[in-house]
Amino acid sequence: MQEAKKYNKNMQGEGDKGAIYEVYERCLIIRLNEELDHHNAIKIRERADRLIDRNNIKHIIFDFSGAGFMDSAGIGVVMGRYKKVIFIGGRTAVANVDSTVDRIFRLSGLYKIIEKYDTVETALKILHQ
Amino acid sequence: MKDKNEMMLEFESKSQNESFARTVVAAFAAQLDPTIEELADIKTAVSEAVTNSIIHGYADGGGIIQMHCVICNDELTVEIIDKGVGIANIEKAMEPLYTTRPELERSGMGFSFMEAFMDDLEVESAVEKGTLVRMKKSIKKSDRQSGIKQEARQKV
Questions:
Q1: What are the boundaries of each domain within chain B?
Q2: Which chain B positions have a beta carbon within 8 Å of A104's beta carbon?
Q3: CATH classification of B4-155 is 3.30.565.10, yes or no?
Q4: pTM higher than 0.80 for the full model?
Q5: Which residues of A touch B (CB under 8 A)?
Q6: Stretch A40-57: mean pLDDT, rounded?
Q7: Which candidate, A76, A87, A95, places its Cα nearest to that of A29?
């Protein structure tokens, strides 16, 4: 309970049609609220990269609870953010992935380099260790 | 007696129409009573083909994309057609992870996904003329029904 309160206090929310962005310490949480296709990927890439540079972001969490679809454009945007933070030892994770999206990640082999968690809270806890 | 249905959709080569095309093909395929997974397969394959026409065919410029769907018995055929730049080397283009637009963070997996999710994939293209991607998928409703009947029998 204490931890949840601490998390909420540090949130800075920024919204855009494709996703809502939250920065918690050096973690960027991208809460998708649209399907992750090429159209949405362009918006997310620009917004996320600006926040990553501005806030000295180290870890990235993609929250898929608002996105029930993803194609290879989504793979591109996740991989692109992974490449951006890996050089500073950052980690990239996905959370709340449904079976459709999970299948795409599995097929692409991306689970070899990104981590999957049930919830954003779990991801945050583990990435901060 | 063949059960046949057909539709044609034309839309501008704009990324906001990717979702629209997915919705239309899903709505048309619904009459075959697909599973959620089969529907996701078809939507993903169509999304990949349409995105390719937008990014590569018309290189993010203007143009018209056509989506032509035919249902014949239990098979859905989807054709995505553009009159864009065309593909010089189709074999190379279909190689997994190959992309001519790495700066757009393209994963090069579009064709691989189309092949994985559909039963059949054909690509016809000519430079400066355009590209046609034809994909087929059989929705085996009859198999599923007999499977359920078998299960019911076993339980009794």
A1: 4-155
A2: 44, 113
A3: yes
A4: yes
A5: 35, 37-39, 41-42, 45, 69, 71-73, 75-77, 79-80, 99-100, 103-104, 107-108
A6: 94
A7: A95
